[in-house]
Amino acid sequence: MCPTFIATGEEVMSTRGRATTIRAALEGRFDSGSAVAAPELEEALSGCLSCKACKTECPSNVDMALLKAELLHARHKEHGVPLVDRMIASADWLGRLGTLAPGPANLLLRWPPARRLAQAALGIDADAPVPPFARQRFDRWFHHRRRSDGGGRRRVILWDDTWTRYHEPGVGRSAVEVLEAAGFEVALAEGRRCCGRPAASRGLLDEVRRLGEHNLALLATSEEPIVFLEPSCWSVFRDEYRQLGLPFAEEVAARCVLLEDLLLDLVKDDPKALPLARPVGEVAVHGHCHAKALAPENRVARLLERLPGASVRWLDSGCCGMAGAFGMLADNRELSRAVAAPLVTAIEELPTRTALVASGTSCRHQIEHLTKGRPVHLAELLAGFLRTGENLGGDISV
Q1: Dihedral, CA atoms, 139, 143, 146, 149, nearest 10 degrees?
Q2: Which 8-state DSSP code applies to residue 124?
Q3: Which of helix, strand or coil describes residue 67?
């Protein structure tokens, strides 16, 4: 069910309510000069998280994320693109810029006057969690590291998304460590551009098309599996590129897998494929909305359940409420927190010394912002158990 309807109980915040509002706007039933700029439509769309849950949970399988993107795209064509949407869509470019001088850039991000100015000018919540820029980009670390020969298994392409490359390179380093320990040879998609998820979330579909055509042409020249760490980026290849009818979209989508997909298939065939140094223990898993909408089962939990000593709890927590830039906007602050309330409660009720896994970067930031939990990516959890006597940093002791 739509997370915003669960949080508010308001009809307009449900998939049915939004679909009814869209129909009314397109039929000209609102007193506005433009169907796509009607205030009633803005109210319905602005609360949509684009979580994709309606693709599988709505009885009519309404794809509200797609409808929202197309309607925002039409509004941009008619009225221009707001500055905040252009900024959000430029997340990859901002990452490149920020990592040129991460020290001063991070100071600026934390500087209260700058945060207040961003809220006044762009609507970015002055109290929202903003991911810092990395001191060393993941792709540069990758090219200077000591290489592994892969141990005889297949070569895989690791998609180093915007968040891994510029903000959380530790996730990428852990993924490389895990994949190589499992015997894979790891390569990056050299010359890749942003997948377009930030642009898609703001309705800049021409930009998504431009980025997608480049990325698909780049990846269509190989046959290796393409491994994703960020579910929202994976879903662009599995969903948006195909919806746009881009060349090579079907062929490339068939090769796109999340890290847990690759590893689960591996341990099914060889239970000892991951050489863990000690038992896993208690783990709680918060699932990403896009993975839950587009994948048949909770494969993170299924993978962990097959590992030695693991006691896995799947959190029935719904959406985290951050949803990319949604929770960073001041107008969405209260709704974002209301959507996150079940997740916050679930985390607060977990036993201490429970490792908490959340594979979405937005999910981790929201959890860190609203709780005392210290979530880790699946790759970080597994990499920690490959080593002996190392603190994972993933327990939620309070």
Answers
A1: 100
A2: B
A3: helix
Where does 279-398 have alpha helices with state H? 289-294, 299-305, 333-348, 361-370, 378-386
* pLDDT per position as a tens digit, 308-322: 999 999 998 889 999
CA dist 114 to 87, 95, 130, 368, Å?
15, 18, 12, 22
Residue 126 and residue 123: Cα distance in Å, rounded? 9
Tokens of 317: 């927590």
Q: Which residues contact 57 (CB under 8 A, 6 or more apart)?
A: 1, 293
pLDDT digit string (tens) for 210-226? 999 999 999 999 999 99
342-393 pLDDT, tens digit each: 999 999 999 989 999 999 999 999 999 999 999 999 999 999 999 755 544 4
Specify the amino acid at residue 18: R
Q: Which residues pair with 291 in a beta bridge?
A: none
Bridge partners, residue 311, by sequence = 282
Type of residue numbered 246: L
Confidence grade of residue 8 (pLDDT, cut at 50, 70, 90): very high
Contact (Cβ atoms closer than 8 angstroms) between residue 99 and residue 137: yes
Tell me the torsion sign for CA atoms 359, 361, 362, 364.
positive
CATH number of the 138-261 domain = 3.40.50
Distance from C-alpha of 30 to C-alpha of 21, rounded to nearest angstrom: 9
Q: How many CB atoms lie within 10 A of CB 119?
A: 16
Whether the predicted model's global pTM rises above the 0.90 cut: yes
What confidence tens digit (pLDDT) does each residue in 105-163 have? 999 999 999 999 999 999 999 999 889 999 999 999 999 987 766 566 799 999 999 99
Using pLDDT thresholds of 50, 70 and 90, give the confidence band for residue 59.
confident
The full length of the chain comes to: 398
265 and 296 Cβ atoms separated by less than 8 Å: no
Bridge-based pairing state of the strands 155-159 and 226-228: parallel
**Residue written as tokens 């390179």?**
169
**What is the 8-class DSSP label of residue 392?**
-
Cα separation, 84 vs 88, whole angstroms: 6
Q: Which residues contact 317 (CB under 8 A, 6 or more apart)?
A: 286, 342, 343, 346, 347
φ and ψ at 192, to 5 degrees? -65, 155
